[in-house]
Amino acid sequence: MLKNFSSPDVLYALASLALAFLVAYFGTPLAKELAVKCRCFDIPDGNRKLHSVPVPYFGGLAIFVGFSVAFLLFSYMLTGTLPSELVVMFIGGASICLVGLIDDMYDMRPMVKFICQIVISAFTAYFGFAIEYINVFGYTLRFGAFAELVTVVWLVMMINAVNLIDGLDGLAGGVSVLESFALLITAILMGDPVCAIVSAALCGATLGFLPFNFGRATVFMGDAGAMLIGYIMACISVFGLFKAQALFSVIVPAMIFALPVIDAVTSFFRRIFHGQSPFAADHKHLHHVLLDNGFTPVQSVVALMTASALFCVASILYMKWKWLSLGIFVLSIVFLAVLKYDKHFLGRLKKKTTLGVVHNPNETV
């Protein structure tokens, strides 16, 4: 049964979002200056990196500071203490952000970075975030001694899922804002104020960074930001009532994170099928496919954000209107499939738009 969310709790969540936004918004230019001083740039290569000029990193540092200040402050104000899970999440988030910063600066070897992700995820799982069971349509599957292992797999997958979609200006940030906002709404409807504060802080911090990254980016979040966002969202999905209520243990998080998870899983198996390392970078992610199908970078971002928004709407509706929610989810999958596999979709859309224009018969050329 869903709990009512008291007004003070809503205000705490909104205040968390606002503070995180302000800190990240005003901190991003400072982080950019620091990256310039450290000569930490993403250099275009004409292949996977589609920007035309070097762009500084460290946007993820601003996201981390904005998120941490907001969620630590308002969680403490709400509870009078900090739950041990939040302390673990902060330590893990700081660690994964540090690994990302080192990778942004020195181009860490993929296997070394992967091992770091496993170690941080194992620490997180061992100290309070273990997924002990999942419930799918009323059937409970308990993991027992494998709970920590399952949690590590989930955390590592989410850490990399957000990182893999960070290939176009504003894509990872925009999708993450939608997903963290869906987590916020779900937490409010479930009556979990701590989850709401954490979700709001992540949403606000990412939103504060987004103006500097959307369109023609002047700064990148880098691995520090992408891995941090994936890690925090994975933690939220197994924290509090998300963990305690069987209704939400699998279905709702799966819907919210559908876009990055689909891209990550298909990339993993595609590389293995073609005899490549699953850690090897390629040019076949969803956003790359859309570009190959004729979409501009901005059109690709808008299209994928639309798909993500549909997934998020489906997740929120699932709590009261399950069949409507599942219908929207299936529609979102179909929409995503059309975007990926129909190479003439954009051309037909442009043609229909052109044919639909009503011309003035008295207009002269």
Give a verbal description of the structure.
The structure is a single chain. Mean pLDDT is 83; it is low at 353-365. Helix 4 packs across helix 5. The protein is globular. It contains 15 helices and four strands. With 365 residues, the protein is mainly alpha-helical. Helix content is 69%, strand content 3%. The strands form two sheets. It has a two-stranded antiparallel ribbon. It has helices at 7-37, 59-79, 84-106, 110-129, 147-164, 171-190, 193-209, 222-237, 241-244, 251-256, 258-273, 286-292, 297-317, 322-341, 345-355, and strands at 41-42, 55-56, 133-136, 139-142. It has a domain at 7-256.
Structural class: mainly alpha
What is the distance, rounded to the nearest whole angstrom, between the alpha carbons of the first and last residues?
Answer: 65 Å
Could you describe the largest sheet, including whether it forms a barrel? 2 strands, antiparallel
Unreliable residue stretches:
353-365
Number of helices: 15
Helix content: 55-70%
Rough shape? globular
Mean pLDDT: 83
Rg from Cα: 21 Å
Please indicate the percent range of residues in DSSP E strands (runs of 2 or more). under 5%
The beta-strand count equals 4
Strand order of the largest sheet: 1-2
What string gives the helices and strands in order?
HEEHHHEEHHHHHHHHHHH
